[in-house]
Amino acid sequence: MNSLRNCYLMAIVSLLAPLLLLSWLDIGSATATKPQLDAKEINAWVQTIANNFEQVRRQLGIEKFERKFEENRVVSDNRNEAQGQQLMNDIKARIGKFTYKYEEHVKRIRVEAEYAFAGHTHRNYSLNCLELKDQPFLRATAIEDKPHESSNNTHQNLDPESRNTVYVMQKTEDVENFCSAPTLVELNPDPRLYGVETNRKVSTAHVPSNIYDASTSMLNAANWSQGLDKVFESNAALDPMLKWQYFGNTEGLFKIYPGIRWYIQTKDLGSKDITLDFFDCRTQYWYLLAASYPKDMVILLDNSGSMKGRRSIIANMTLTELLYTLNVNDFFNVIMFMNSSLKYISDDFNFTMLQATEKNKYTVMDLIREDENRAPQDRQFAPLGISDYKEALEEAFQLLDYVKRNATDLSSGGVQNIVLISDGAPQTFQEVFKKYNFDRQVRVFTFLVGHEAAEEENVKKIACSNRGYFVQISTLSDVKENAQRYIPVTARTNALRRDHFFAWTGVHKNQIKTQLRKSSLSKKSATASSGSSAAAEPESAPGFTVFPFTETASTASPTTTPTSTPNSVNGSGSSRGVGGPGGDNSLKIVYKPSKGDNTPHQTPEEDPAVKNKLFASVAQAAYDIRDNETIHRGIGRLIGVAGVDVPTDHFERLGPAWELGALGYIFLVTNNGHVLFHPEFRQFDHEGNLRLFFNNRDIAEIEMPADESPLYNAPSYTLPLRLGLINRQEGIEQIRRIKTYEDFTRGFNRDFKYFYAPINSTSPDGTISRATPFSLALVLPWQRGSQWPPPLAYRSSQSGALPSEGASPETLERLLQLGPNGTRTCVPVGAAGSYGIGLSGYEFCAFPAHLLGDYNLNPICALEKVLASPEANRTSMNCSAEFLRRVVTDALSTEEAQRIWRAVDNATMESSGVDLFFLWTNTGLSRWHNRTRPLRSDFMSSRRNASREEMYEKTVLLSTEVEANSDLSVITVPLSQEVMANMKANNTFPKAFPVYLTSVIRSRVGSSGAWSPIGVAGAEIDYAKLEESFLSITSGCASPGDTSCVTCSRLNVQCYLLDRSGFVAVSEVRHDVGRGFDQVNCAAMKALVQQGYFERILSDSAVSIFQALAQAVDDAVVAVFGEPQPTTAFAKLTSKQCDTIEKEKPRRLLLLREEIDSKVDEVIERLHAKSNPLDKTAEVKKALVQPYCIAMQSGDQAACAHLCKRLRQKLEITVYVDLLGNCPKRVVKEVDCVLRRSLVKRRSASTGAAASSKGAGAIEKSCSQDFGYCQGSADSCSGDATFKVHIRDVQSTNLVFVAVQGDPNCNCRGCSDIIGVTELRSGPSNYTKPRPPRANPPWGQKDIRLQDNATTCSKRAMKGPQPLGLRLLLLLPLIIAQFQL
To answer: What is the pTM (predicted TM-score) of this model?
Structure first.
């Protein structure tokens, strides 16, 4: 009977099925018998998707390239531990010679400066500039650009030294004061300096805005230092790759070579611009590091009742400026003494010393600022009562003695100082100094604050009797200059010992602020485009009133190009210097102001070519070497610091990727554990701005073992690798770490072998070796006792050899395919008309200037000329013969690339959405081809790093990670913010953003099945085509003609392609692409993680390895606007409390959302009758946006947020993008709950028996039980509303197909993050910073004894003449900005 009954029921169901299906689609009621996705259909879709990707991969021609490489004898080679150690030693030796070369450049500048100073006779310029017959120095801020006659050719490769000219002013009736007159200097793009406009005939000088540049001391400094130009030029001739050279003296004069026009930031105040020039060479790290030994400093800040008001402001400003003078090798603390008691800035800082990192200095200043902003009754540091000087001094001496004897990890190991900031002292406290400083080994510096400061003599005597210095600071304008008066005093010890140590800085942003030519801003300047003569009007320098100049009748013919030498700047070749009598003026051109200036106003800009370049600096102090002034009188005198900037990428090039093999890299760290360079060192945010404290990034925050689980920004600083690096030890470590890509959003576990050793600067002959603060690490992927994947070996073959006379034009044309020689010019990377071939930025030769211009323009042009040159020329340029042999072999093996790709018919490329084919090889050679002409180069111009590209490395890593599948197709989609930017701009519609398919070109290792990557080939695919194909495939049934199956087109089914890191690659909703699946459908992702289909990779904190994804609990708005910036607020509630608030949303909100859903459906139905997107937009605004987003109360954004979420799901892009401006960017919450997201990855079937069954499957979950509220009525979600997640791997790709089928009345997308809400610590505990182990720099000296006998120990506030009444106004923004900081 039961069987018969079942048969009847099945018959009835089969008859009513179509009717039930229609009813289900139309009404959407929750039933227990709704149709389900069929595994057969899913498998068919996934197979079709895999076939489509494989078809694109076959079009790349990978098999043909592999056969050509095999014919050219490129094979895989094994590298064991001994070979890895040898490779590390080779790279270490290269870097040692490299650092030695730069140290010698600095030494030559320093020696010349010392001899020039020793031979100089001081002059008293009583009348300042009025008595000068020449300009004293070329002020970089007052340089006027005289464009070169051939400047209309922006890509000329002439040596800039052959065409730079300087036009120096003569005194006329209109030019009486040389110190305020501008100088006309010819500036040209310099191929040695990233195309920055320079003049290599001269140096220019910068003077801080708070220093009078015509004072006697400044003019004397300009006089004796003018001879440094010949050393600058000599160094540049010895080393074509040398960048900035400079010398900063103790008065603030900063000489820069090559000469540039200094950029001064301007602040628009409406009626006029105010210039903001904050730069002072004496507060730069290179100056501070080289000027004196590392120091411990205890700052005593008088906070008694007499320090209220203006004095307190000056004192705090002085403290801020003092902190700016401390460098990362110094230690400090601040003690406030008031009301007969002592207070440290924080209880966590009691009786200890802080390393002077940027973060610690900022923390101290921030704590003081926070206290000042509190109500008077809540302040801790409000001026109060009477100060106990004796107790404060004793505390400072005891603290210094403690860290010196018992806590060396809290001390710099160098000189010790006490700084007293006060408005007066009642006595000299000699009993305290006799007890604690009887041998005067602690210097005491005193700063007297205020005009009418009391007990001046007492404060002065405290400093003078303790080898210190006394300064009175009366006004805010006195602070900046006088706060650093102590630096030359601390330098007396090393100056007296003539200790010329070399000080290396960590990484820093470019410090030389070059101004972009104004013609480059307007792109229509006649002087730049047409090649003007000397009569052309120069542009005004910022911050100065400058008039255009015309030639007088007395000048030379305009057709005559003036010539000059470095000495002609001063009018004479004699050594008498500026202001001397009898200068030869024959090489000068006389100008005078012309009437009228109609030049339109243009805001100057800093040159972007070098603005964010990263450098390290090496510096050396210059001393007064006159024996009668130093040795005999016991006075050590610092006269300045010489320095050179070294691009950090030059270090990295000494361990090139083509030599290390795939996934191998090197990095350098300092003695403090800070990163100098590292391939995963992210200095910039998404907008291109430098991250806060980027120069203090610790290696422990990057090289994190996979089994570490740091909490609250506290990675392990005691890892053996880190300790070995900072202690300058040699060693080998094997670590399993997380390799991250794409802004830390994707991560993979991998074993690496670390070879590390200290770097010593070593002379070429090996006879000289000097320690540096750097340690080198070579990192190689490791597996089963050897490097994996193994590196490549280019066996000797005739095809890859270069003839001694150079390659023939026919050979070059076949290899590089640049076009017939002699009929073309080199075009820059990224310009129209490029060749479909490129080369990454590896300087394989020490290029002379003319070749360096070609290299900067397009490295492939320089390669062509080098290959065509005779072997003797290649040897003289120190070209890497091994690199040239490899790159020629790569070119031979890929020369058929264009023919292979052109053979793919346009119809096939069009149907698959392929716009461009490309390949990269291990040497950095790249080729590309696109369907349209001319050849595109925008892709390669932004991805020139070849084997250092993330896409290259990720392709190799995944191909070795996923069952060593070298046939893997790796799909890469943009980050979510790039997707949203494309959609908002909508400038490529109907095309979308590009998606990339890449696969490895490999070399087999015998018959073992192992292989090594030679390169990566790929295709650029239009996402719109990929999306169209995906929707078409997943909307059809497996059986032909079948229309009854459940597909992804159903309203209650969402289908996705995810990458193996859980990010959406393809979705029915384009806004989802590039986002983590937990943000798109967190319920489904949570289920996949819980059931083991994805596994977590341990996460780090927001500022460490991985990017934190701070967001509101309801991420509907985040889905629209992409990832927000991490919140700066701290959570006030626990995770449990936040979850409770989320689940207990009021009934009113649920009803409101139900109402919105109903309205949206009504409006969508009406839109079907409208074809014009503008009409659709207008209808949506009127019916939905106006009532729910505009008319709603401003405090209730939940309705508008929910509407935006629904519109995102329902509307087409062209309509929805226009509505984005009405959507709230962040929902206002009752609490600020901060979320953190961990990295996840697809669990591999080969990782264990427990995971082997997780290749495919389906999970069924209850919405109401597991994931919070449902979107429909309460009755329809009473426990039986479920959803099901289906998962399949897409064969031979890095993608995973996921389909989510849910109850149509239940929205399961609104759940919490897969990790959940986490609580961040707030309040004072945030200031409890870990104390990472560190080592003192090599130039630090133990047990230093102070022996100087200087009697000069005081300096009142500067009372020198002010050049303009505007000077104080110019200084005011600086004071305000620094005080606010």
So the answer is: 0.79
